[in-house]
Amino acid sequence: MVSEDARIQSEMSLWWLGHGAGKPGHEPRLIGRLFLTQGNEKVGLEYADDWSAAGFALSDDLPLGKGVYLPVERDMAPGAVNDARPDQWGERVIRAIDRPARQSVLDYLYFAGEDRCGGLGVSKELHRYVPNESMSLPGLESLADMDRAVASVRAGEPLDAGMVRLVRAGSLFGGARPKSLVEMSGSQWLLKFSAGEDFDMELVEHATMRLACHCGIQVASTQALPLRSGHAVAVKRFDRNEGSRSHVISAKTVLHAAGLTMGYPELAQCLHRIARPATVKAHQEELFRRMVFNILMDNTDDHEKNHALLRAADGYYDLSPAYDVVPAVQGLGEQQLRIGAQGTDSTIENALSEAEAFGLTKKAAVGVAKQVAAGVSNWKAFFQSHGVAQKDLAIIAQYIDGRHLEAQRAALVPRT
To answer: What is the pLDDT of residues 244-276, one digit of tens each?
Structure first.
């Protein structure tokens, strides 16, 4: 049966829920009108007059003022609005639970609901904030049932009302892996589950994130949660702080707005424009450190939506903590983002080729790379200490300790 809220609408409204909106005295603010156009294959945005006068540009390609903003590509929304939509798993959950009468980007934006990433909300009413039905989040005691509900969605099986509550929140976030939300110790945590592979990817992700922290990288807090088979990984939301919401934009949105190639050096340069002047240097070095870590850990899924920036109350942006950092175990030798003079080649030489774009001298960049390589060189013992099974260590070792990456590590930190 199709959801009552799935009635066909070609116009909806976009709202600002950030920095305490929704609390007493902090009501949602109307940003503007969203509408379908060009054969219902694109979502457009038109700012409301009040937002144009006293709001902020959602991204650099959506400056305040009169006019209509449209995406270049089909099946997209403009600028930062597109970052508020769900991706593969979220759309799959929406189709299974809400069963919208039409499956346009506008409908997916609406059905993503209140707890989506960032501070934007979508309402079916043009002048009143009426989001898709929200539910109280389950606690950790529901983990086993949540695992079963996720498996049912993957198998295309029908869900009862209890299961719906456990997986609905999985429609809020991007990515292809099964997800949901739980409340733990007063905070929201994103749960990621196995996609069905014979490899404990979730425990490996937790171990990789902790290793990244050990290498001096700012990472989101994670916990590995045992299941009947394997683990789930819980990632603490960094876009929520004691109930306050932050505006989040992806690196893709930042780079697209600037008309730049999807690359690390390009993102580092964008920080001059959007980050607080006093923090630019630290953010650039942090981005360089993450890039080197991704190379040495075979994380070749470091695409432009796996990097994000958070808008602070003063209007400047900060790099979000690192997330979705895990070995691809494919040995592709190519990153998703441009690294340096040799394009996307996964080499430290390539990473050092444009060190100046990160505000680093060649000597300073080599120093950072050595620090990261020293931490990565102990990856196996580190992963073992976090409970990663021997069979999974053997699979990962084929790549991280393979000729391509081990040689690069050894060049930075020679064996003694």
So the answer is: 899 999 999 999 999 999 999 999 999 999 999
Examine the domain organization and report whether 106 and 172 are in the same domain: no
Chain mean position to CA 105:
18
In a shared domain, residues 118 and 229: no
Alpha helices in 247-361 (DSSP H): 251-258, 264-274, 280-296, 348-352
Number of domains in the chain: 3
Nearest-angstrom CA–CA distance, 412 and 416: 12
- Which residue type does 28 have? P
Distance in angstroms between the alpha carbons of the first and the last residue of the chain? 66
Does the global pTM surpass 0.85?
yes
What tokens appear for 188 in the block?
A: 């929201």
Q: Which two tokens stand for residue 286?
A: 């942090």
φ, ψ of residue 327 in degrees (nearest 5): -60, 135
The neighbour count for residue 123, using CB atoms within 10 Å, is 19
- Strand pairing category for 222-226 and 240-241: unpaired
How many angstroms separate the CA atoms of 317 and 21, rounded? 19
Confirm whether 130 is domain-assigned. no
Domain of 287?
245-412
Contact 166, 147 (CB under 8 A): no
Is residue 18's pLDDT more than 70?
yes
Q: 282 and 405 in one domain?
A: yes
Domain harbouring 191, CATH code: 3.30.200.120
CB 164 within 8 A of CB 180: no
DSSP-derived pairing of the beta strands 187-192 and 231-236: antiparallel
**Same domain assignment for residues 267 and 233:** no
| Dihedral sign for Cα atoms in the order 143, 157, 110, 251 | positive
Q: DSSP label at 136?
A: P
Segment 219-253, tens digit of pLDDT: 999 999 999 889 999 999 999 988 789 999 999 99
Task: Answer whether residue 2 is part of any domain.
Answer: no
